[in-house]
């Protein structure tokens, strides 16, 4: 039985893995502005504090893998990296206008959804300390104080056996909870090989079970 008791499910980076797993298990049913991007927790909070007002307001193209069909575009102000939104066969200036309109719609839709929700599950994949994870939730709760929110953060822990999972849970108050999960998301220790793009799928499933 998957987690189903929340009104809204929000991937919070630092890369596209949380968005992938929430979609895979049918928990993310619409697109949000930070899906499939690389960003840190400070940027995540800043964007919601400012209503995404400076989101990709100044950009630069970075070197991308030749086989990729999209450019690597950096939000200079916020440090966000977009890997999937700027096709190489389209002009950047042309696509930036489309991108801004699309992401503004996504932000407003998400903001309205959060305002009309009573409960929220946030899923992150970061190497942040437990204190940093807790602070991320507290800062987000200050923006949406009406929500009962649970933040699950997964940290890649390569020294662990790929079948092992360690979790630490924090009840911050009667509305805010945090679960920090640690497992090897990069290497299959049993079969002695690197894991694929989406990491340790069995333990991601367990985390969301």
| Weakly predicted, low-confidence segments | none
Number of helices: 5
Radius of gyration: 17 Å
In helices, the fraction of residues equals: 25-40%
Number of domain modules: 1
Please tell me the overall pLDDT.
Answer: 95
Strand share of the residues?
15-25%
The main pleated sheet reads as: 5 strands, mixed
Structural class: alpha/beta
**Span between termini:** 6 Å
Give the overall shape: globular
Order of helices and strands: EHEHEEEHEHEEEEEH
DSSP summary, beta strand count: 11
Strand order of the largest sheet: 1-6-7-9-8
Task: Report on this structure.
With 209 residues, this protein is an alpha/beta fold. The protein has one domain. It is 30% helix and 24% strand. The chain has helices at residues 17-24, 41-49, 92-115, 130-143, 201-207, and strands at 8-11, 37-38, 59-62, 72-75, 81-82, 119-125, 148-156, 166-171, 176-183, 187-188, 193-194. α4 (130-143) links the parallel β6 (119-125) and β7. The model has no long low-confidence stretch (mean pLDDT 95).
